[in-house]
Amino acid sequence: AAAPGYQETINFSFVEERTEYELAGNADPIRVLNPIAAPLAVMRSSLIGSLVGVLKLNLARRAARVRVFEVGSVFKRDASVVDSLSTVAGIAQPMRFAGLAYGTNAPLQWGEPERAVDFFNVEGDVEALLAPRQPTFVSDEHPALHPGRCARVDLGGRVLGYVGELHPKWRQAYELPHAPVLFELDLDG
Question: Are 7 and 13 in contact (CB under 8 A)?
Fold first, then answer.
């Protein structure tokens, strides 16, 4: 896991079109010809929407503290990809590692005041995950994340991913009492 307390989740590669537009900034998602369910009509290009869905399910079951991660493929249009035994022409399938933290920073314990998880806690989880390599965090923007609380994760001269607090408009749109902090990292390359 990214840090102690995170639980692995496995989600469908099919998502609601809404999450692709809103949380991935993907205006042209890859459509599924025969979806397994009407709402799950497109292929995900980010793991963030799936993790927000898992958070909503946990909150419906009255969970006060949620730490989840997922390792999985995402799907993006890429004309350079050709048909093979493991690929489909025109579709790249990079592997990603993403996590979500919500609620208190630590489980309730005597002698320790409750404190909500924040950007810096999850930034530390990403640093621990990548150790001994040392990433650089650079202020940046991502469609799903709060513009003032988002950083690009650079490692070895390339963009590895993003970490940040969910954007306030998506926190409200997905009816979340508090904003989760998320990260998504590219595992390919």
Answer: no
Burial 77-116 (b: 16+ CB within 10 A, else e): eeeeeeeeeeeeeeebbeebbbbbbbbbbeeeeeeeeeee
Predicted TM-score (pTM) of this structure: 0.89
Backbone region of residue 188 per phi and psi (left: phi > 0; alpha: psi in -120 to 50; beta: other values): beta
pLDDT value of residue 107: 67
Q: Give me the pLDDT at residue 69, please.
A: 96
pLDDT < 50: residue spans in the chain: 1-2
Sign, Cα dihedral of 71, 73, 75, 80: positive
Sign of the Cα torsion 119, 139, 182, 158 reads negative
